[in-house]
Amino acid sequence: MVAITRQTLSRPLLGPASYLASRGKLPLSTRTGHAAHSSLAAFEQLIADYLPLEQVKLVRRAYYYSEQAHYGQTRRSGEPYVTHPLAVACVLARMHMDAQSLMAALLHDVIEDTGVTKKDIGAQFGSDVADLVDGVSKLTHVEFDSAEQRQAENFQKMTLAMAKDIRVILVKLADRLHNMRTLGVLNREKIKRIATETLDIYAPIAMRLGMNEIRLEFEDLGLKALYPMRARRLEAARRAASGNRKQLIEQIRGQLSQTLKREELTATVVGREKHLYSIYQKMKAKRKSFAEVMDIFAFRLIVDSVDDCYRALGMVHSLYKPVPGEFKDYIAIPKANGYQSLHTVLKGMHGVPIEIQIRTHEMEDMANNGIAAHWLYKSEEGSTSISHARAREWVQGLLEMQQRAGDSLEFIENVKIDLFPDEVYVFTPRGDILELPKGSCGIDFAYAVHTDIGNHCVAARVSNQLVPLSEPLESGATIEIVTSPTGRPSPSWLNWVVTARARTHIRHFLKDQRRDDSLALGKNLLDRALMAHDTRLSAIDDATMHTALASLGKADIDALVIDVALGNTLPHIAVAHLTNRYDDAAVSGEGATLGIRGTEGVGVAYAKCCCPLPGDAIQGYLGQERGLVVHRDSCRNLVDLREQRDRLMSLHWDEDVDRTYPVGLRVQVENRRGMIAVLATRLSSIGLNIERIATQNKDIQFTFVDLELQVSSRIHLARVMKRIRIIEGVLKVTRSARR
Predict the structure, then answer these.
(1) Annotated catalytic, 113?
(2) How far is CA 193 from each of CA 32, 196, 480, 597, rounded to the nearest angstrom?
(3) Under 8 Å between Cβ of 222 and 195
(4) pLDDT tens digit sequence for 87-102
(5) CA distances in angstroms from 566 to 474, 511, 627, listed in the order given
(6) Catalytic entry in 79, 113, 213, 480
(7) Going from the N-terminus, what domains does the chain have, and what CATH number goes with each?
(8) Which of 24, 219, 540, 549 gets the highest tally of CB atoms within 10 A of its CB?
(9) What is the pLDDT of residues 538-574, one digit of tens each?
(10) Catalytic residue (one of 44, 79, 98, 112)
């Protein structure tokens, strides 16, 4: 490989022959041979059809710059490396992308693989092109712990660049497409890794941006790379099936064309062939045979206007009987990626199912090219297409997720969740339409409306009926969210939500809440320990605090306080450093008992083994990374924990505790029909919330019923147990651990 110095590349990177060729003074054949000549000539012809001459010259100059930067470098196939960026630029040229995108495609590997810097590219071709190239370039000079982290960090970098310029992802998709087309020369392990990444991330991104043609090619190439034998067999079966069905397909197409012509409606009728990956996925997911998947005949009608779409729909419904519930109007309500079309399913001759899509020519281009069609249809007034506007909204959502995610791996996990939407359409009380992924619940809806509404939601009204927040939503419903100033996200919400936005905001809130709770608890624990020395945390002078933090290895007081709350640093050890007393009295851990209010949040946990309640004698255990865990004084687990006396602390309940706590009860009842219903009815009648109910058969006479209830105190529990004991058929009631 020939070394290229940065000094050389900071100048216009064109030798005499290349420079003259770029000016049209020399024939292209003076470059690198006939193959390169024909490829570049075809590319120039492609862009000359839609770009002004001055822009064509700029693009050509970028090609020569790339050619010289990659001089001496070859691909695994043995071809000059410049053939790859040229092929990437050709993919974008077929979408009629602008000159800056084409220049970025031609230069997209020079920062990563040569001595050229972003500054050099900016000086030669402008800051916009330099930003595009930098956005596509991978992080090459950073060490990563794993391949997954490398992938996540690179994607995160690209997302930040996408937020500034959406064209970054288009260049990246074209780059990945050519790499997928030329996978064959790599080893098997690399082929599987790249194909899996493409199917997991890049194909869904292409779908999210409405770029259907690229998405379908990604999926088919990915299937062939991962499962070459399955792909070959499916391809052979598809060819055979197409031959057998040819006559029937032509017959249906003829009938559709005649009907439209009779009504004087200009339309193009095309058959839609199922793609290999789509066939494979349906066979796998729905456990159908190849014949069952191929049993549906699919056609697309392309007309001149939106009015013609609805006229054509009426005509095909008059020709064949429509299948109830299978009509979808994506023109009135476009998909999240801006896709528009009418979909219907008909019963044709001999009961054959026929899928019909009806759309305009512009909708067809939008469906195939998605956001890239924005450049194809961009008007002089600079109007923005639906797909372009939706794409920008999505990228802004990605940016928000990236800012709130804990790390790059969590971010990419959320992106993957967001990339598989099978939408439901619901209405706000004002009549606005929101599209959400299938399976979304009221919490997803709340966060889609506004973060604050999500953070304070307590219930949902679906078509004026109160429903649990966890209930999945259905298309067409009107959703109203009930909020409360005291409402707050719960960790259990993560089990229900589907959207990445909701998941990210919940995690972010819980992290912040955990930090706030830990700060409050840690200060409380330190103050309690410092009381034995007649001082408080706020009374420690700056010099002493600085020395103590340095000796404990903490960056600041907040880090120390949080570590104390999490049990990573014991309070009396911190106090010994803060007071400069290291004798036995200082590190004994003795001090005033800590009051438990029940409002400490996630900083304090209540042991499931004994279910402490207000009124119980309690002790606390500072578990490492777990924080303070409250146990009943009589808990059997404390016997083992008492050996770690430095982690135990005396606790008491505050007088103003005002909340409910979970507790377990075991009820022995006669084994007869209806006893469970009687128990549940009696508990419900006294206003108790039953969290869980389960039975265990002891023998033919008796049954044990395990209950999990919410009660406010030990006295409240005693009253509940008394009410249960008087029920006919109840033999014994005892307090037990939660399961």
Answers:
(1) yes
(2) 33, 5, 44, 53
(3) yes
(4) 999 999 988 888 998 9
(5) 42, 13, 4
(6) 113
(7) 6-228 (1.10.3210.10), 229-376 (3.30.460.10), 421-496 (3.10.20.30), 508-653 (no CATH), 661-736 (3.30.70.260)
(8) 219
(9) 778 788 888 888 878 788 888 888 777 777 777 777 8
(10) 112
